[in-house]
Design a protein that fits this description.
Structural class: alpha/beta
Oligomer: single chain
Distance between the termini: 18 Å
Largest sheet: 8 strands, mixed
Strand content: 15-25%
Helix content: 25-40%
Amino acid sequence: MSVVNSAPLQGFGDDAFKVAVYIEKRPPMPAWQQLDHLHAMQPGQINEINQACGNGWRKVFNVYGKVLFALPSEYYDFAKRASDWQSYRDEQLLQAHSQTTLLFSPPILGKPEQLHIIAGRTHAKQLINDGLLHCQLTWLDDEFAISKSDKVIVCPYFDYRQLSNIKIARLSQLVADIFS
């Protein structure tokens, strides 16, 4: 396993995360443009971002909730923490003790309990080209890649059209493959 860098994590979520999702762009709000640390979201902050930034960010948070609920229950208990993914999104996602993060900084690999999901092939390839992702990815097709040893999966961007329910099920299976 390789450590990519030692810079502080930048994004939203719990510093004791088990699942990290990496996306390229931050919400286009002044409060988040200079974020240089990991910020545990407070109740209502996801909704504030949705209201200010529109449908694109709503899709990111919705798909994240759906992904967590689809993860294999023998490894992750997110689906047991709320009655549905919408409740989980609104009440727990990216908050303290949620074990989830949404990161704008490059992955820091090496902790065996952490799963790293890079949202978007273009973002993953940019991280590789910039020397910020050092793991051996096996590309399964144009959309998905995996590094079992580093627990890294590249999947389509968190958008309903790109990461449909069928592709979320595939992502869940890839997570199960990492742990098997």
